[in-house]
Design brief:
single chain, about 425 residues, eight-stranded parallel β-sheet, two-stranded antiparallel sheet, about 10% strand, globular
Length: about 425
């Protein structure tokens, strides 16, 4: 279905208005000695991975309200990501969640991915819940469990994930550990950490030399007294102990309220240990809302740190793995993903507009108001014409969500897959 999207026809009614807006903004930026086309190219080059679990409705612990046409297998998930990528040309990779997305027909999947111009960039392990026929339970932990048999089961699952990923060309293993405790005294905090370190070392040893391990952190949930990896410092310490191919993964929802996430990003970039992002939006906790929907200024400040580090020759230029991790009930998940990518690109574009030389001068002079004004000027600039032009020049839709609706894609998916189809992995 993706190959049948009439994008020129969908873009045509919007083209004149878009060209007017883009021309105006390009002229304004030129007066400021900024190159609009160079920014458009950087936006076009930016790619955000789509997680296989975000293609269906979900995001609540109390129930789901499916909207129909959800992908029932990995092949249909690839087809859905192909739709997204054709619309925005910014979603060329997929992150798989095992065991829900264990590849069966590997040659067929490879052919399907190649046909759509997609890649599998990472695999995510799951030791935060028990699976059918699993010998040991993770109720009291997985990689940190007191019983060696449970730890070995969790280690082997991660090793198996690496094997599945290798079949499809992935080179990244993402580990999110739900291990922790709910009551004081339940768990020996130091020993739980040491067991986790030992388990991760076994997984790291089994990893190919051209792979990287991303270690995610979370301050609370599912456990509310302690989490074994509660913060970026713990994750960073584990990465330091494992080796150069282990890096920290920052999930924007995995922080306590009012945490200065942009400072964490700056520190990790300076240390050369920022491996990846899971983008989403958060109001209270790990809400997994649309990226940029709640705290757009914070998202901009995060990208400001990323762009600033990219201009610093003393900072590692290692690639960062970007992925969306959003999932909820109230939106069409494909529309939500398109909105998230749009907001991410918008924040990136605004960060590219920051006058670095002027900002550095203001910072060195301790001119607080001037420094803030420089950031506000970039943030308040309407960069939507830049983002839309990056879509257009890459062969996508000027307005991806509108094009998705006008093409009636959800209705087509419902006709193909049924009103009651449910996506796996939620």
């Amino acid at each position: 279905m993706a190959s049948d999207l009439p994008l020129p026809e969908l873009n045509q009614p919007l083209l004149a208005e878009h060209q007017l807006q883009f021309s105006f903004l390009a002229d304004l930026l030129s007066r400021r000695q900024q190159d609009a086309q160079a920014i458009v190219q950087q936006l076009s080059d930016f790619q955000v991975a789509i997680p296989s679990w975000a293609l269906g409705t979900g995001g609540t612990r109390f129930g789901r309200y499916p909207l129909g046409g959800e992908p029932r297998n990995l092949e249909e998930k690839i087809a859905d990501v192909a739709l997204l990528h054709q619309l925005n040309r910014s979603s060329n990779s997929i992150s798989l969640h095992i065991p829900w997305d264990i590849p069966q027909d590997v040659p067929g999947l490879q052919q399907l991915l190649s046909h759509h111009g997609l890649v599998i960039d990472s695999v995510n392990s799951n030791t935060f819940q028990d699976q059918k026929d699993q010998p040991f339970s993770y109720k009291f932990g997985s990689l940190s469990h007191t019983e060696p048999g449970v730890r070995q089961q969790a280690i082997q699952h991660n090793v198996d994930c690496i094997g599945y990923g290798r079949q499809l060309g992935a080179k990244t293993l993402t580990v999110w550990l739900a291990d922790g405790s709910n009551f004081p005294g339940q768990q020996h905090l130091r020993r739980a950490y040491l067991r986790t370190q030992e388990s991760l070392a076994a997984i790291y040893e089994a990893m190919p030399s051209d792979w990287q391990m991303l270690i995610e952190y979370k301050p609370y949930e599912p456990h509310f007294y302690s989490m074994v990896i509660p913060d970026w410092g713990t994750s960073h310490a584990l990465c330091q102990q494992l080796g150069q191919n282990a890096n920290v993964l920052v999930d924007l929802g995995h922080h306590l309220p009012n945490t200065n996430i942009e400072q964490i990003v700056g520190r990790l970039r300076q240390f050369g240990r920022l491996g990846g992002f899971h983008f989403n939006g958060s109001m209270y906790g790990d809400d997994d809302l649309t990226t940029g929907s709640i705290k757009p200024f914070q998202l901009f400040l995060i990208f400001n740190e990323l762009v600033d580090a990219a201009h610093d020759a003393q900072v590692s230029s290692a690639a960062v793995a970007y992925m969306i991790d959003a999932s909820h009930n109230t939106k069409d998940p494909l529309e939500d993903l398109l909105q998230s990518v749009d907001n991410i690109l918008g924040a990136y574009a605004k960060a590219l507009l920051v006058d670095r030389a002027a900002l550095h001068e203001a910072q060195e002079a301790n001119d607080v108001a001037r420094a803030e004004e420089i950031l506000r000027d970039a943030f308040l600039t309407d960069v939507r014409p830049l983002v839309a032009e990056s879509y257009r020049q890459s062969g996508g839709a000027l307005q991806p969500v509108a094009a998705y609706r006008r093409a009636g894609l959800r209705e087509q998916l419902i006709r193909q897959r049924g009103k009651l189809s449910l996506s796996t992995g939620l």
